[in-house]
Amino acid sequence: MRVPESADAEEDARRAERAHELRECKLLFFAGFLGLPWLWFVNWFHYRRRAPPESDPLVQVYARRSLLGSIIGLVLFLVYFFTVQLTWRRWATDIMINAPARKDEF
Question: Does residue 18 lie in a domain region?
Answer without folding.
Answer: yes
